[in-house]
UniProtKB/TrEMBL annotation:
Topology versus the membrane: Multi-pass membrane protein
InterPro entries per UniProt: AA_ABC_Transporter_Permease, MetI-like, MetI-like_sf
CDD domains noted in UniProt: TM_PBP2 (cd06261)
Record-given protein name: ABC transporter permease
Amino acid sequence: MSPEIAWLIVRATIQTLHMVAVAAVIGSIIGVPLGVFLATSEKGELFEAPITNKVLGAIVNAARSTPFIILVVAIIPFTRLVAGTSIGTTAAIVPLTIATIPFVARLVEASIREVDPGLIETARSMGATPMQIVLKVLLAEARPGITLALTLTIVSLIGYSAMVGAVGGGGLGDLGIRYGYQRFMPEVMLAVVVVLIVLVQIVQSIGDGLARRFDKRQRSR
């Protein structure tokens, strides 16, 4: 492999990491609170708002059910409005972030709902406010699940970032298509696949390690 191709792979990897990192951070900032609200806003729960819960739930379900590649194309006008362009790594962050928000929200909701309801009732009986219960009970107890949820989100984003290369999004997917497929350079395609696998393995290993560290049951053994 020539130095030029090696540099292209390095640059594409950096672009992929940039897209994934920004989308994961922004998507989590919005998606985690949304997931907490979905898990605590049904009838009789901490922030009772069943109508709002149903509306937001429907929006989240609609966003999650849309195939990512279709989402990328469908929101091109919005992407152009936000990023000023519809191609490149900056533009790719927009659909990646939009896809991340409902994904994170549902995973966080599931993690919150796994917390023992008895802990919530105990905190209520001790006079804790709903926000205190969320911060000191729900999020604290659900940390392992939320960590794994965010890990899964980042792993999925790595795959999505490769997919968005098909529409000029830059990164490893774009490199694989332009050089590996269109220019018939299988060694480039192989290198892209290997780099993506390595990135996924690193992220998964870190996420699993953090989840075990946060898990009280593991620490008590």
